[in-house]
Structures are given as C-alpha cells and as structure tokens.
Amino acid sequence: MKRRTGELTNRERRFCEVYALGGDAENAALTAGYDMPDKAGVSLLSRDDINAEVSRLYEKRLRNARQKAYAGYERIAFGSVNDAVRLLFEGDRFGTEGEGYDLFNVAEIKRPKEGALEIKFFDRLKALEKLEQYGRDESEGASDFYRALVSGIHRLKENDSDYGGGNGGEEL
Description:
8 helices; disordered C terminus; two-stranded antiparallel sheet
C-alpha cells in the first residue's frame, strides 16, 4: 500500500510521539522499531514533516501541562478545606478511614510530640496571583474574539454613561 505524500507512517508517528516526550532521537527510533536507531533518529529529524509533527505534539503537551497547572491553582485558590478540618477532629481514626478525604489544598501535616495535629495549607493568595498572571499572559496573545468582547463591554459602558445610567463611570 502506497502512502500519500506528506502523510507519516505509523512508525514515524510513534517516533515523533516518543521524541516529543523525551528528546532522545536514538531512543525514539528504537522504541518506534527502527533497525539502526542511531542513524534512523538523525535521518528522521532532518525531515521537515517529522519536525513539524514533533513541534505540534510538543505544543500540545505544553498546552495540556498549562491547563493542568491552571486547574491545580484553581483547586488551591477556591477549593474546600472541609476535609482537612474533618481530619483535625477525626485525627486518630484517619489512619484507618483516610480514604475519601480531599486534601489537595494541604501542603503539610505534622503531629508534634504534644500530640496535636498541625495542618499547613498551600497559600491561596499565591495561587490567585498565579491564576491572574496566567490570565494576563493569555490576554497578551488573546484571540480576536476576546478583543472584540472586551471592546464591546467598553462600548456598552460608554453608551450606558452617555444616558446617565450604569455604574457612575467606575471602571469595570
């Protein structure tokens, strides 16, 4: 079966996937099933279509990592501490009944010699700052839709203040 021009084989795709994960051409070629992985890796990386696919996969991984980090910061900033408080009251039973607790916001748990339980949480303000920074970074490369949305809000605000209504000229 003849492949179409510009279309990667399954083995070439596998090479791209493994190379995008680790950056080791020889290991990627070996994992993809090439006989002479050291030469195959160098040869494959000299092709534009392979480099384009590796770049696409790398960017996808980077976007996924950013989305996971954003979701983690959201959980820290807005997540519940109810289970940590429950843990304070059920401290001795935690060892046997600890499953089901959501302790994502907990940075550290200690039991000093006195026997009391100490729980340290991740800093919510720092998480909010990271979320705000992420939003600022995203808006610097914002889509046309986002810019149009912001522009529309400002026009609505201007129209509202022209008719004496709205928020008294305060910033949105």
